[in-house]
């Protein structure tokens, strides 16, 4: 009975979380591997294209069905959905479909590929038909491959896009590099602060904890804007350094990678301090005193006894900081330059501007996979440590 009461108390929160967070996120991510557009708008063409072996130009019967669906979707206003989807794969396909719909007054005049090629020569190209076949869905690898700067060729093989078109590989590498460096900086700066908090008298520790929690009381926009004021060429920091005679000219501290590191480290530092502080407070001081009584120096006692006990807090803090840093958008956009934007900026672009939700979902999915791997690896390591 107690177990049922516990489930009853948890169920409303669980259902609310499921309906308002888990389900919408799952449906959004599903767009990265699903491609229902052509199947919904052109069902007959989808069936004909799936029956085509893809080795050479499709039969004339397939061309007649596609021509009929082009004119029908143009009349009912759904051609834009197919045009937008094909344009992601083959630039210029949107104009091709609209021009074809206008130039075919009567589909009875289309008897095959040659007739469509007279309407527009591009219909005689093998690539446009391959793009149509690849868009038949319902599942697709198109968005995931595009997010990795790859595409599916006409022969069914995966090819790297030309070097001048590579975008996302560099963005992903930049995102992971920035997140990793920010995590390491938070670890180096946060460990001494957490140690000090855990070993100070409670009165002073509470006051210092308020200072640590202070960034949580202001929005990320306010904190980032404050760093813009501090780090700009004529800002407070450069003015102080010039006044002290430490530099001869203002330093470039903003609108570059250094500004991103500084601002993100400041914002994310409390997320490492808090879990590490909780672990340190649970460590029995007697263990370090026991090591000292056995002849260990203070440094050796810290290195061999105290530090290993804080590893769970370090791992949890670094994982939290790294996870949050991967999804940062506002801070790099305000204090970074054009070469400092992260994957989140591309996701925002495809979601809000180009309305390519499939691409946005694919980028999000590729960003989620490493986090799941890291979380599983951390859980495995913690269990192994507990057994040891």
Task: Output the keywords.
388 residues; mainly alpha; MetI-like fold; 19 helices; elongated
Placed side by side, the strands forming the largest sheet appear as: 1-2
CATH architecture of the largest domain: Orthogonal Bundle
Determine and state the CATH class of the largest domain: Mainly Alpha
Low-confidence stretches: none
Strand content: under 5%
Mean pLDDT: 87
End-to-end separation:
37 Å
CATH superfamily of the largest domain: MetI-like
Helix tally equals 19
Based on CA inertia axes, which overall geometry fits? elongated
Binned, the helix content reads over 70%
- The CATH topology assignment of the largest domain is MetI-like fold
Instruction: List the secondary-structure elements in sequence, H or E.
Output: HHHHHHHHHEEHHHHHHHHHH
Can you tell me the number of structural domains?
2
Alpha-beta content class:
mainly alpha
Walk me through the structure:
The chain is an all-alpha fold and 388 residues long. It has two domains: 37-137, no CATH class; 168-387, MetI-like fold, CATH 1.10.3720. It has helices at residues 2-30, 37-41, 43-51, 60-76, 79-89, 93-103, 113-119, 126-134, 142-147, 168-199, 202-213, 220-231, 236-243, 257-281, 285-293, 298-326, 330-335, 343-352, 357-387, and strands at residues 150-152, 158-160. Strands 1-2 form a two-stranded antiparallel ribbon.
């Amino acid at each position: 009975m107690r177990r049922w009461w516990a489930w009853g108390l948890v169920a409303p929160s669980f259902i609310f979380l499921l309906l308002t967070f888990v389900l919408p996120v799952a449906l959004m991510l599903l767009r990265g591997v699903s491609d229902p557009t052509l199947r919904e708008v052109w069902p007959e063409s989808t069936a004909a294209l799936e029956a085509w072996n893809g080795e050479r130009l499709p039969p004339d019967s397939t061309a007649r069905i596609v021509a009929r669906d082009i004119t029908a979707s143009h009349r009912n206003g759904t051609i834009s959905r197919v045009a937008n989807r094909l344009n992601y794969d083959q630039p210029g396909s949107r104009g091709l479909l609209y021009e074809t719909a206008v130039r075919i007054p009567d589909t009875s005049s289309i008897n095959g590929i040659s007739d469509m090629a007279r309407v527009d020569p591009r219909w005689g190209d093998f690539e446009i038909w391959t793009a149509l076949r690849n868009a038949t869905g319902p599942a697709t690898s198109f968005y995931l491959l595009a997010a990795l700067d790859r595409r599916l060729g006409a022969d069914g093989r995966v090819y790297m896009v030309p070097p001048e078109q590579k975008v996302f590989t560099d963005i992903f590498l930049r995102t992971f590099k920035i997140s990793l460096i920010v995590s390491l900086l938070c670890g180096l700066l946060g460990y001494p602060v957490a140690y000090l908090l855990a070993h100070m008298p409670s009165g002073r520790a509470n006051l210092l904890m308020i200072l640590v929690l202070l960034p949580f009381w202001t929005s990320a926009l306010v904190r980032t804007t404050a760093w813009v004021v501090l780090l700009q060429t004529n800002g407070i920091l450069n003015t102080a350094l010039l006044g002290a005679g430490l530099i001869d000219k203002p330093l470039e501290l903003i609108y570059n990678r250094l500004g991103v590191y500084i601002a993100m480290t400041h914002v994310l530092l409390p997320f490492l301090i808090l879990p590490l502080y909780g672990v340190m407070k649970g460590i029995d001081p007697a263990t370090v005193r026991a090591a000292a009584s056995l002849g260990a120096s203070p440094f050796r006692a810290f290195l061999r006894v105290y530090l290993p006990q804080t590893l769970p807090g370090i791992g949890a803090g670094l994982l939290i900081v790294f996870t949050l840093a991967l999804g940062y958008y506002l801070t790099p956009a305000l204090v970074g330059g054009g070469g400092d934007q992260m994957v989140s900026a591309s996701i925002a672009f495809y979601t809000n501007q180009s309305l390519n939700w499939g691409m946005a979902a694919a980028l999000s999915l590729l960003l989620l996979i490493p986090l799941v791997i890291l979380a599983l690896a951390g859980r495995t390591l913690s269990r192994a440590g507990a057994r040891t």
